[in-house]
Design goal:
The structure holds two protein chains of two kinds. Helices cover about 40% and strands about 10% of the residues of chain A. Chain A has helices at about 5-25, 40-50, 65-70, 85-95, 120-130, 145-150, and strands spanning about 40, 60, 75-80, 105, 135. Chain A has a five-stranded parallel beta sheet with strand order 1-5-4-2-3. In chain A, α3 (about 65-70) links the parallel β2 and β3 (about 75-80). The termini of chain A are far apart. Chain B is of the alpha/beta class. Helix content of chain B is about 45%, strand content about 20%. Chain B is globular, with a radius of gyration of 18 Å.
Amino acid sequence: MISKWTEKLALAVLISALSTVIFLSRALGQATSLPASHLINPEELVKVLQATKGERPLMFQVGSYVLYAQAHIPGSDYVGPVTSELGLQQLRRRVESLPRTKFIVLYCGCCPWSHCPNVKPADDALHAMGFTNVKVLYIANNFGADWVEKGYPVAKGQ
Amino acid sequence: MRRRILIGAVLILVAAGFYLKARHSFRARQGAARQHFAAPNFSLPELNGQSLQLSDYRGKVVLLDFWATWCTPCREEIPHLVELQNKYRDQGLQIIGISMDDSPEPVREFYKRFQMDYPVVIGNAETGELYGGVLGLPIAFVIGRDGRISAKHIGATDASVLEQDIRGLLSPQ
């Protein structure tokens, strides 16, 4: 026999559990909601960059300049954090004249993937503009650990 | 039926609790690295325009926090850092924030909003490189009274882990 008090307790626990699930999904951040088809792994990108055939992507770093100046993918352009409207405008301006089929790679690497605030808004903005060949570089931990320390090509400065 | 709901709900809560605990412990273990070299000196502008030199804090235990206003885990850590600064100020703790933002404006706003009570300077690539490359945020260095780096924490770090490091260094004055 379950009392009314137990029923209320069960309801409270259920609500708490639901809240926990919502909290966890929010804490996991926006980047985790990117579909797998939008992603490219570091190894895959290195292969693309080293290939003599095929389209070379246009690459944009959407993190901070201080991080870009220390290390970035050679040939990539700095756009800046797109969490700000200014950053988003810079990204839009940079691509507005390009054909919508242009191969574009976005990357940040500021924070662990689950916390990166930049790549999802950047990806959303380009898709909203009609770009159909956009990939986001999947960086699990940060650019240092998942790109530089792996020995992949790096450039410094502007 | 009701009993099953109750058991299910409790199991979900317990599982969520274990997950969060394991996640924090794993991150703390993964991010920490013992260091024993001298903390490189730097001179960087504070938000009020004055210059801050790390060497001026020799004799204190320093927590150097590389962060940015748009970095979610960095933002989450700030209230804990403010608490730590308040709690251990009199024992000789000095937290110094090094913002890796592109400009000081959002940092000033953030500083006021979060009532940050420790100095924040505007960082640059040179300072990042001095510290072995700051290629992910946040990164915290714990520096002893002798000016040597005691620990480096990469990524979001539990406040209790930082506090443990700090307390270990504060005691032997």
